[in-house]
Structures are given as C-alpha cells and as structure tokens.
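Retro notes
What went well: the complex prediction finally ran end to end.
Inputs used:
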Amino acid sequence: ARPPAAPAGSRAALALVTLLSFASRFHRLPEPPHVCWDETHFGKMGSYYINRTFFFDVHPPLGKMLIGLAGYLSGYDGTFPFQKPGDRYEQHNYMGMRGVRRYRLVSSFLALLCFSPCALSLSSLEKYTGCITLSQYILLDPILMFFLMGAVLSMVKCNACADRPFSASWWFWLSLTGVNLAGAMGVKFVGLFVVLLVGLNTIYDLWDLLGNLSLSLVMFGKHLLARVLCLILLPLALYTAVFAVHFTVLNKSGPGDGFFSSAFQSQLIGNNLHNVSIPEHLAYGSVITMKNLRMAGGYLHSHWHLYPEGVGARQQQVTAYLHKDLNNLWIIKKPDSDADLSDPSSPVEFVRHGDIIRLEHKETSRNLHSHQHEAPLTRKHFQVTGYGINGTGDSNDFWRIEVVGRKPGKLIKVLRSQVRLTHVATGCILGSSGKTLPKWGWEQVEVTCTPYLKDTPNSLWNFEDHINPKLPNISLDVLKPSFAEILLESHMVMIRGNSGLKPKDNEVTSKPWHWPINYQGLRFSGVNETDYRVYLLGNPVVWWLNLFTIGLYLLTAISTAVALKRGVQLSSELKELSRVVLRGGGQIALGWLLHYLPFFMMGRVLYFHHYFPAMLFSSMLTGITWDTLLKFFAGFLSPSTAARRVYGGGILALVLLIMYSFYLFHPLSYGMIGPMASDPSSPMAGLRWMDSWEF
Amino acid sequence: MLGFLKNPVVVTAEINVNLVALTVMGLISRLWGLSYPRAVVFDEVYYGQFVSLYMKRIFFVDDSGPPFGHMLLALGGYLGGFDGNFLWNRIGAEYSMNVPVWSLRLLPALAGALCIPLAYQILVELQFSHCAALGGALLILLENSLITQSRFMLLESILIFFILLAVLSYLKFYNLQRHSSFSASWWVWLLLTGVACSCAVGVKYMGLFTYMLLLAIAGLHFWHMLGNQNLSNVGGGWLFCSYPCLGDLSLKTCSVSLLCHFLARGLALIIIPVAMYLSFFYVHLTLLYRSGPHDQIMTSAFQASLEGGLARITQGQPLEVAYGSQITLRNVLGKPMQCWLHSHTNTYPIRYENGRGSSHQQQVTCYPFKDVNNWWIVKDPGMQQLVVSNPPRPVRHGHIVQLVHGITTRYLNTHDVAAPLSPHSQEVSCYIDYNVSMPAQNLWRVEIVNRETDTDVWKTILSEVRFVHVNTSAVLKLSGASLPEWGYRQLEVVGEKLSKGYHQSMVWNVEEHRYGKSQEQKEREVELHSPTQMDISKNLSFMAKFTELQWKILTLKNEDTEHKYSSSALDWITMDTNIAYWLHPTSGAQIHLLGNVLTWASANVAAVIYVCLSLWYLVRRRRKIYDIPEDAWQLWVSAGEICVGGWAVNYLPFFLMEKTLFLYHYLPALTFQILLIPIVLQHLSDYLCRSLLSKTMFRALIVAWFSSVYLVYCTFSPVTYGEPSLSVAELKDLRWKDSWNILIRKQ
C-alpha cells in the first residue's frame, strides 16, 4: 500500500531476491558425489523413462517425467543403477554422473523459479513483504512447490484482474491457474489440497458475483463457464495427457508389471501376455494359472514341501507366488469323474458360473483342499493345502466357482472374469491374506480360506494363462483395455499403494505435530564423522517465527473481526489493513490448514518434507502478519517519516535475523564433513538447540 | 397475615397428553418382554465382562471408549444385585440364575424409550407444529433398529439419549435467550447442555461429534450476538440480572454484557464437561482398585497402586536404587508384550541362518515372564563389591554403572557387531572373554528421562531410565522382534546407535528391587531366588493415573479386526447390511439389527430434498428473490443446522476411520436424519402445496405413507423382538435384500 511510485523499487527487490535465490540454490550443486536418500527412487525412475521400462510408483508421473527429461536432454544414458543411498557416482561412467548432476541442476532451477512467484504473489497480495519470507527455503520438494506456488500466484493475479473480466490478462492468469493445478496434481497427490484451495476461492468468487445484482444471469453464466473450462476441464485434460504420455513412453515390461492386472500387462512389450493368443472360455481339462486381484497378489501356487509340524495339518503347502513358475499351473476337473479330459476325442465342456469344480495341481497332482484347521498366520481363517494322491482326494477338495456380477450358467472368461472360489464343505472363500510366510514357506504369500464372506480383492481371482488344445485361440487384443480403464486402474493401484505405506511396529516415524516446531529433521546422507553429511532441517529461527506468527495472526484476525462486528469506526487506512488481514491472510491461512491438517488423518508413513507446502503458506502468513502489524503500530506515530522509518527498520531487522540464521545453519543444507555436533570441537556444536536433532 | 387463606390453594398442572402417550408407548415398545431371550446377545458378551469386573472391583482397560457407559451398565447390575459370577465367553450362552437380566437391560431400554419424547420436544423447540413433532416421534418409535439396539445391554441407546438431551437443552436455552437471559431456567438448560454433552462423550467417543456441533452452533449464535449493538462490552448488571425475581419490569431493558454471556457459555459448555469427564475417570478408578487381567498394559507405578498383583510384590521395597542393588528392569513400551531384561547361559550362534556372524557371547533378551534370570545387579565400575554399602550410595542421573547379571555374573555389554534380527543396530550380550582382541565395553550411563533436576536419584518403579553405552553412545532398546529357536522366541534387545529422540522402547524402569547383601555367588543365588519384601507403598496422584489410563485407551490397538458382520460406512445409507444378534438354539427365532426400510429410504429422500431446496433458496435469495417469508427461512436453516448437521457429523467421520465398523455406528446419525422427515414434510405442505386440493392430497399421501411405515415395522418385528419364531419360508420372505444375512437353519 505504498504510493504507486514504488513498482520500480519492488521490481528491484524482486530481481535481488531472484539473484540471491539462484546463488543459494546453485552453490556447490555437485556435492556430495553420491546418491542421497530419495534420489535412489527418483533417479532410478528417471532412468526408467530413458530406458522406456514400465515401473510403478505411488505418485503421478509428471515429476519423474521432468527428471527423466532433464536427464535425457543432458545426455544421461540411464545405466546408473541407483541401488541404495550412499552409492558413489564415481564408480560409474561419466555420462551417468553428469546426467544425475543435471537432475539436481534442474530441480534446483525449479526450486528457484518457485521463489519469484512466491515473492510476486506476496507483492500482489501485499507489496514489500516478500523479502521476509525469502531466505527460508533450504531444501524442497521443488517441482511440486513450483506448481503449487504457480497456482496460488495465478489465482491471486486473477483475482487482481477481477475488475476487468474476460480481458486477455484475465484469461491468461485463469488458464495458467488451471495449468498449474494440473502440474501440481501430476507431481503428487498432495496437489489435491491446492486444488481444493483454488476451488474454495473460486466458489467464494462466484458467490460474490451472484450477489451482484447489476450482473445479468447470462454474464454470470459466462463467468461460470469460463471457470469450469479453465479450472476443471483444462487441468483434467492436461492431467490425462500426462498419463497418456506416461503410458506411451513406458511400453516395455519392467519391475512394475506385477502390480497391475493381467489385461494391463498384455499391453507391455516383453511381458509374456503381450501378443499371445489363448482360448477365451474356460473348459474342463484346461491348464490355467490364477492371479489374485489384490495389488501384487501373486499366482496361486503349490510345491512339494509340506506345512511344518505344528502349523495346521501336515499337508502340502499352497501359497501365492509373485513370479511366473511351472508350479503355478493347475488343471480344472469335474469333482466326481476322473476321466482323462485330455483325450482329444472327448467333447469340450465349458465351466459355467456356479459349477462345482476340483483344482488339481499339475506338477504334484494334488487337489486344492481346505479344512477347519487354522491358517498359518491369519488365525481366524482356515488352512488351504494340497491333498490327495494323483487327483484322488476327499469331499473337502470341491470348490464352487462364481463370477462376480454374473448370473448362473454363464461361461467364464479368461482374464476378464473376476472369480470367487467357495469351499463347498465349509462355505469359506479362497483368498490371499497378503502376509509373508516365514522361511519354511519360502517367504511366499499366505493363502487362506476366509469364512467372512466379503468381496474384497483379496478373495477374488482371475485366470491368466489358459492352455487347452481343443479350443480355438483368440488374440488377446480383444481384451485391450481402453485408455480410460488404464487410467482408472493405475489410479486405484496408486491409491492402494499409498495407503499401503504403513509404518512398521516400533519404528520411529515423523509425526505431523513434530513439523511446525521443527522437532526433528531428516538425514539425507551420511552418518559418521567422516561422511559427507546432509541433514534436512528447517531453519529453526524461521520455523519458530512462523509458529509464533500463526498464533499472532489468529489473535489479530479475531480481534479485527470482533472489532468490525461490534461496529467500531475505522479510518480508511485501517479498513484497508483489516481487509488484508481478513481476506488475504485468511486465504493464506486456509492454504496452510489445507496442506497441514489432512496429514493428521493419514495412516501412511510420513516424512518431514511433507510439511514444506504448508510451510510456504505459513511463511507467507508471517510476511503478511508482520507487515500489517508494523504498519498498524507505525500508524500511531505522528510524523509520517518516523512512521516509515519504524516500519522500514522493523522489516530490515526481520530480514537480517533470517539471513543470519541462514548463515548459521547453512552447513546442514550444503553438506558438511567433520565431527558430529555433539562433539564440542565441531563448528555446529553450539547449534544443536534441540536434543532431537541429529547432526 | 392470613391472606393466603382468602384464596384457595390451587395447583395448576399442564399435561401434554401427546408427551405422556409417546412416553408410555415408548416404554411399552422398549420394555416389553425385556428379559427374553435369556441368553447372551451379541455385544453383551463384550460389555458383560466389564460389568462383571465392576462387580468384582477388578481393574480393566477398554480401548473402545471412556468408562461412563460401562459404569451405567454396571449400575444396572448393581441394582439387580449381580455378583459378577458369569463367564462371558460366547454369544447365545444361557444366563445362569444369578444374572439379573432384566435390570441389566433396563437402563439402555429406558434411555431408548425416553428418546421418543425427547425427539418430540426437539421438533417443538425447533418451532415446528405439534403434528410434525408427533410424526417425528412416531417414526423414532417405529424404527426397528433403534428398538433392537435399546433392548439389550449395549451403549448406543444411552449415547443417543444423551445426544438428544444435549440438543434439546441447547434449543430450550437458545429460545429462552431472546427474552429471559440469566433467568433460572436459562441457567438450568445451559448447564444441562454441558452435562448431557459430557455424558454423551463419556459413554462413547462418538459423542464428541455432537458436542463439537453444539459448540459450533453456540459459537455461531454468539457471533450473531456480537453484532447486537445494544449489548455492552464489559460490566453491566450481572448480579442484577441473575436474580430476575428481585427486579421489576425494567429488567427487560437491562443489558448484560457480552463478557458475561461469553463466560457463562464457557463455563457451561467447556469447563463443566471437562470436569465431568474427569469425574467419570475418578469414579472409575475409585471403584476398580483390585489388580486384574489388563494390569500388564500399565506402567509398573500404576500396577503398584492396585491391590494385589504387583503391589504385593513391590510393597515395601527400597525406593532409591543404590550401588549393589538387585533389580529387575521392565521395558516401558509394553509392546508386543510386557517383558523384562533377561539373560541366560546360552550364547548367540556363531553364524546366523543368513550367514552373518555374531560375537558368540551370552544372549541378552527381553523375557515376558518373571524369572530368576531377570535379576541384575547395579555395580560401581570403580569397586569390586556387589553388595550395598552402609549407608547405601544412591545412583543418580548421569552416573556410570555396570550391570551384572545375577545368576551368571556376566556384565551387560554391547559392541560394534550387528544384532541378530536388526542388523542396523548393535548386538547386546553378556560379555565372555574369548581372547579375540574384543575388549569388554560394559560401561553404561544412566539417564533418567522423567527427571526433575539433573541430580535426581534413580527411583524404583517411578524413574524411567535410558541406558546409554559409554563407548558407542548406543542406547539399550527393545527391538520388538522375537528371536528364532536358538533364542527360545524371546524378544530381541539391541543397542540403537541412531537414537531418534524419545521412544518408549528405549526406556526401562526398575520393577522389583532389593539391596544386595551377599558377596559370595552361592549365597547371592539363594538371595535372588528368595522373594522380595520390604516396606513402602507408592501412590500415584489421580491426574497421573488419569493421564496414563486415557493415553492407553487412545493408543491401544486391537490386532484382529475382521468380523463377519462388519460393514463399510457406504453400506449404511441404503442398509445393505444387517447384524445377526441372536439365534434361538433350536427354533428359527432370531434377532437382527435391521432398520425400518421405509423410514431409512424416506430419511434419505428427505435429506436430499432438504439440501436441494436449501441450495435453491440460497441462490434465489442471493439474487434478492424471496420465496418464503424471512422467519420461515430462519426456522428452515436452524432445523437444518441441527438435523442435517447432526447427521453429517455423526456419519461422515466414519469414512476416515480405519477401525472395524458396524451398522450400529450409524444409529445416532440416523436419528437426526429421521427428525428431518417431518421438518421437510411440514415445509412442503406449508409452502409448496398452494391450493387446498393439493394440501388434502398431500395429507392423504402422508397418512398412506405412515401406515406403510407401520406395516413394515410389524413385518420385521419378529426379528426385532425375537418372537414369534418364524418358519423357513417366512424368513426367506423377509430377506428383502440379497445382501442381508438372515439365518436359515438347514433342515
């Protein structure tokens, strides 16, 4: 709210800030020369893109695609293995190393980009406060941050253009918001929160417009349409496009195959389901493999080994096995007849929904069997074994085969039918519990018969391989899933994968309440004194200032709101200030809440860096609050020069404080060698302000 | 003087016949044949064991919720003279003669019956017609699932009763607010709101949702009051207005300050509920003073405060640990089970199954049973003696000690060898010198975690201690994994190098303790085998006990969560699931938790209509088009705040929960949703049926619909009350949805 002569000054400040952030991000970029922490994953995935190998990750692909692109542009050939944190790049070829360094370069560049919008968004919300928030970023999830800040900035800019709707700049900022939303969503699902923020803001906006009676309903319809187009359709289209590129680029079979369904796998070059042709309908006498429908569920498997003493009945083990193997083959037989169905003269008889069948293991000729003994790991379920000699067993070998969502008497399709096997004698359902058996079970996955009749993917199966010489083969291209199905499936798999990242018992994990108080950092690399150590820790001064300011902001906002509600007369300057506190600050505070609170409800493993998006908002809130407060108190001083001096001094003091603390803690972010901080001779000795920091 | 004699003494009583009739009908529907079936029905098997424990005054921990609900059930048992002697092991088991079934089930049934007049009153207080209120109450009366749930020893009906009571008292309070603030009845209803809220929370944590809703609504109303410029900020006639009987007509103009209003609400809606909640725990802990099955979840200090159990052992042992003390060390975490630091003569195998090597020294484990091998002796590294000197020299925070295993006299040691199951941590062993240039590293620094000053003395039971290895700064930790055969499946103990802050697995406390007297090994073994006995008792303050118990209730997790009748929150709206509560051992008589299908569907339709109409009105009002009068709109909104809000807060959070969910979790939400039906109906008939003809038609429709609700109630009442027994064909006819699990006996 300074006189309009200021833009030159603000532009200069912006340029300075950009320069500083460039310098701070690129300083000593190539160090340390080994893989740090999550670089193992993301580096590896970058390599996969270059090799066009299909993989699976719990996050949407845009971020990794950008990393891959950076590596591709810099000529990295994707051969570095990225096996575990701490591997040295030197051991590998020069190109790979350089490529990797380029990754860092690019990600740093993006991190840098995220500065300027941040400063900008602030300056548009509240000029001059940007500087306060600046020196705070030490290490970030940079690409996400970039899109996130981009979205917020464009949203704010677009609000600023609200007085001239449908102008070119209005359209530009509106669609840019959409693009950034797609970007944020495309990098991580955390992007959803910013979508929510923008969505809420848009609804508020539209509500405002609706209340404006001078605006005709047609105009309002136009506003609505424009927003639907730019903020819903455009991001969706872009987001889908990202996945389209992802699936087009990755067309070779790779480590991610097992996570996906059989139909999906048939699309990947090199997968054994690619371009094969098999009979479509299941018939008696067919040799088949059965895949569990839960993610990474494995194939129904058996082998000669028996369950050990004390684990149910001492019969042959039945497990679920993730790899393709001859022991996964089973033969479908009728329950009663032992007639040799492989005889080519006998007529083909198809298996129908509701039939009672017997499954014989091809290698060992034992029947799939269950009985009322408790399963090895899931005690409430029944044990599943292989029983009988040469296909002769007892009545516990009979299973009713049912297709989900079908009527009795229908045929059963390979790959596409979701099948449930009900044990006839006990009424339980064949399923895979997902628990890994101990050594005696070769660390394969437990298969049980569950008495709880629920249709979960755990208890559903599909037929994958199907060999029956009497039936005509059809090409699997018929089964080719549409793009929409692929998209849906990959999302289901990602969501399940995300919720599957549970912390183990007794594992010390980061808790959301740790984050705002900067309770604990994250070790990126290096443990011992001689290692090159990088430790991710928020700048404590900034962190604690932010925390304090959130409280301060709440106090300010409440007292302002109450004062307004009580009808206190304010001068126009104060009115302007209160508008900034309630409207601008409210938006930012909402952003902070949206990016922080949901983590309390998440069951998955959490890390310190999950707080960074919220941290950005909290830093901006700090800027706004201090700026407003300084202005408010400076307003009491009578000569305006004194007021300006107090205001300027306050801002300067804050900036200097932050700069100094950054200088103090910079070894953490750039990496350090030497004794641990617990040793008094270390340069970091005095800086271990909390016992829980480990550097 | 005798003026009062001039006029006759007149007692005027107003009796709302509607209310009385509803109450009577409610009592009949809920209490009829209450002690049938005389067998354990569904979750009675779960709550019953707690009632028994209350009767026997034995301490327990139940992670399903706070103790108030259990206490109310136990009150029923107490009134019926239950002695607690019944084995609650199986659903369907016949009750023995000493179990007062009727009085055990009485309180939930009464609560369920009283919900009906409460529902009536709520609708009246929401300013809807008596006709609508009657309709709403009848719908609650004829709701099969609410009947089933209130006829057994279960908590939901009590919870719903308190929730409705809280809502009703708030509405009464709010309606009094306009004309007689700070009158006696104003205070009564305000305080009753707080009390009912805390009771609801005390019965089940689900009550929190409604409490939060009421807090939010109270906050909103107060916010509107802030805009009222007639009220002063601070001061004002607080005392004057609190006693309206003293004043005259000018009272109506007196202004009480906003601050007073704020403080009154804060007192009644926050401070009183918190105090009540604490008092539940106070009563709970006072009642249960004997040690019982869940002792081992609690810390040693807590256990020592219970009669019997640990208290008998630790009673009177010396408080301060000194050099030469003989101690057992318990891990504070207590997961996967409680255990004590242990060692025995067996050594680690030279090579593990995966080929890694070990130090081949004596195993150190954590052992979940009391054993003579759990005894350790605290030794001063500078001295040889293993007895306590006279006077004893206490060990303080920061002292360096050695820990000597009592039976084998080997020293607790850790070194840079990978632990058997957690290769990132160090192995902990009792040192054996094999002359392989691997020196003993047996010095440990004692760090008292819960110290007040840095010179605190290490105390038995009370002090929580970390042992930091002096050479490697590793911390003695329970890894939680259990060792293979060679370690007798005992739990692994490791030295954790990367100690990330505080974690309970790294903290130990002394449980049994005595001063060692015998220097000779033989004598010492005899001494170790003898039981401890000495002479001080340690009492925890109530707040310490409360904090610990509350924390355990919140963090305790039950492992196996799958249940045959569990369902997902999405199934509830359409009632795609049911729960079989009881099946007669021979005939086909059975009891199911199954709602009145028509009511559920109508409630859903009402909610949809309410939301759509509100949105429509809202948008139109924004364009300054007013379809209904302003006061009707206000009523519509406040009814929605309570009913739709109550439904949403009691339902939506279940989508975020990971615990096992059952259909009965939906009942509080359902109650609110049912209350919405008469509201919507009355609104439709008042404002949307314009002509007389359409009004008449609408009324006829409502009558028809009501009779079908009654019919559905009658159809399902055999599985609601468990009587009469139905034939197989009749049961099959009742299976209106394929997903319902109605039990049909194989002939």
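What we learned: Residues 217-249 of chain A form the longest helix (33 residues).
What to try next: split runs per interface for comparison.
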